[in-house]
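Re: that chain you flagged

S.,

Sorry for the slow reply, it's been a week of failed gels. I finally had a moment to sit down with the sequence you sent. For the record, here it is as I used it:
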Amino acid sequence: MTHNHDESTLAGRISLWIRSRVDAARADGVVFGMSGGIDSSVAAILAKMAVGRRALGLILPCHSSPESAEDARLVARKCSIDTVTVDLTSVHDELVRQLPDGEGMALVNIRPRLRMTVLYYYGNLYNKLVLGTSNKSEMMVGYFTKWGDGGADLQPIGGLYKAQIRKLAKELDMPKEVLAKPPTADLWAGQTDEQELGLSYDHLDSILAAVESGKVGGLDLEKVARVKSLIAQTEHKRCPVPVFQDI
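Prediction finished late last night. Pasting the structure tokens below so you have them in one place:
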């Protein structure tokens, strides 16, 4: 698979940005999680464009569907991306056994945080930067786990709405199996992002763009209020950790 590296394309600009950040950090490439979804697949291809064989994809199954790992390997094969698979299921289960009974987000968030731990292990081991795979739509409404999939050194697609990611995926000749999948964090069987958000990504993108520009006329004001509330509630996820200064 060959791609255009020049700055006339969005993919070219992002890949050059990744490479410049890697060079500035004197790192030996990048490491990233590959879930088989469209976001991580786009990030993986951009990483390969940026640093070639110094891009390492980690496939980290943990009570996730087998199709996720299969789709990740499909993308890796098509793009000649080196991968390592680390099955976190038994580690996760042993950790949960040591904890008091819990449910909901307390329990669900363990998985992305375990994955982040392994990504940083490989990053430290091979002097690589950890590449995040969150898009702008997710990041603006806080649809990510703090210190989980939000834990990264670089967020190459964090400035792109989901619609832009889909367009870019087509330009990058993404396998149709990946393009056709409903977006999911794969946290439980049948879970989808849009179901959990209560909005389609198309709706969400249009509301976020309107909120950013301050022009929300013509939109469902109840949905606008809900999205604004999500942005406000999750501000702590996007900000540096507050530090007390005794002046």
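What I noticed first: The longest helix spans residues 110-126.

Talk soon,
D.
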